[in-house]
Amino acid sequence: NSQFSDNDVIILTKQPRGSGDIFDAASVPTDRDAIKCEARVIGTGPRYIDVAMPKGAFEAAFGPAPNDYNNNSKENNRQLRLRADRFFSNVPYNRMVSAISQITALPERMSDEKEKTAMVKRLDPALREVVISTYGHSNPDYPAPDADLQALAKKIAKPPFKSSTQLANEVLRYIQASHMNRGTFPPFNPPQLTSIAAALSRRFTMIQGPPGTGKTTVAAAIGFGFVHQSRQLSPHARVLACAFSNVGADQLALS
Fold first, then answer.
1. Per-residue pLDDT tens for 74-96?
2. Cα(229)–Cα(238) distance, rounded to whole angstroms?
3. How far is CA 108 from the centre of its chain?
4. What pLDDT shows up at residue 194?
5. In angstroms, what CA-CA distances link 149 with 23, 123, 129, 159?
6. Are the C-beta atoms of residues 178 and 101 closer than 8 Å to each other?
7. What's the rounded Cα separation, in Å, for the pair 150 and 148?
8. What is the CA radius of gyration of the chain?
9. How far apart are CA 110 and CA 240, in angstroms?
10. Dist. CA 192–CA 182, nearest whole Å
11. pTM of the model
């Protein structure tokens, strides 16, 4: 139960042969004939977890609960064994919310006398429009189903700052000079350089490619460019690089 946290969503799967068959193929929730039910963790202890689910869901899936002492039915199965698998973890979700709050906060200079910086939460209006306009674009009931995606694409392709293009060119020159002098960066091909330049001079950029095409190395170069740009904005500015998994984040950091 140390693997579970409050608000985690878990899948309870009935073990066909009782205890001892947790690794059997028929015991996993992905099995076609698996008997399972979704629940949410509301508390954990040394040897137990408390879960909540819709009323009647447990009985509908597994029958009367073994510890339902208010049920006088003889159908209570004292040998019932359930497997718990975490389906959604609340921990990375909270981390994601915290990261988004920080990355969208820009420093607001206070008076020199106070010598402190107040962080004001702010999201680029263009990026906010991207999220709102495209999330439910195919859903006619969504608030913005008629968004002009072509106009939106032009808006997010514009430089976020007046100096973005100039700073992007400085980064590209440094990267290419570094390769010639056998420095920090490896050689980049033209599509990779185009991707780096686009990411450093636009509000939003998506880069796609099959494995082995250098996406991680390109992302590392983009991160370097963002650091260079941030230093021109404020000494307090920070760059957040995130990945889908810890392994991906480690590879990006090593690159």
1. 555 667 888 888 877 777 777 77
2. 10
3. 27
4. 92
5. 48, 19, 10, 18
6. no
7. 6
8. 26
9. 24
10. 18
11. 0.52
**Structure-token match 């674009």, residue found:** 137
Per residue in 192-211, is it b (16+ CB within 10 Å) or e — as a string? bbebbbbbbbbbbeebeeee
Query: CA-CA-CA-CA torsion for 21, 25, 31, 35, nearest 10 degrees?
Result: -10
Check if the beta carbon of residue 126 is closer than 8 Å to that of residue 47: no
Q: How many CA atoms, within 13 angstroms, populate the side-chain half-sphere of residue 144?
A: 12
Instruction: Give the Cα separation of 15 and 192 in Å (integer).
Output: 51
Measure the CA–CA gap between 37 and 65, rounded to whole angstroms: 13
Beta-carbon contacts of 131 under 8 Å, excluding residues fewer than 6 positions away, are none
Classified as helix, coil or strand, 237 is: coil
Largest CA distance in the chain: 82
Distance CA 201, CA 158 (A): 7
- For residues 52 and 81, the model is more confident at 52
Model confidence at 119, in pLDDT bands (50, 70, 90)?
A: very low
pLDDT tens-digit series, residues 14-41: 887 665 555 666 677 777 788 888 899 9
121 neighbors 104 (Cβ within 8 angstroms): yes
Query: What are 212's two structure tokens?
Result: 């082995």
Task: Provide the 10 A C-beta neighbour count for residue 111.
Answer: 7
Cα angle 163, 189, 201 (rounded to 5 degrees) comes to: 15
C-alpha to C-alpha distance for 249 and 84, rounded to whole angstroms: 28
Instruction: Give the Cα separation of 105 and 119 in Å (integer).
Output: 6
pLDDT grade for 120, boundaries at 50, 70 and 90:
very low
Distances in whole angstroms, Cα of residue 6 to Cα of each of 40, 45, 222 = 8, 11, 37
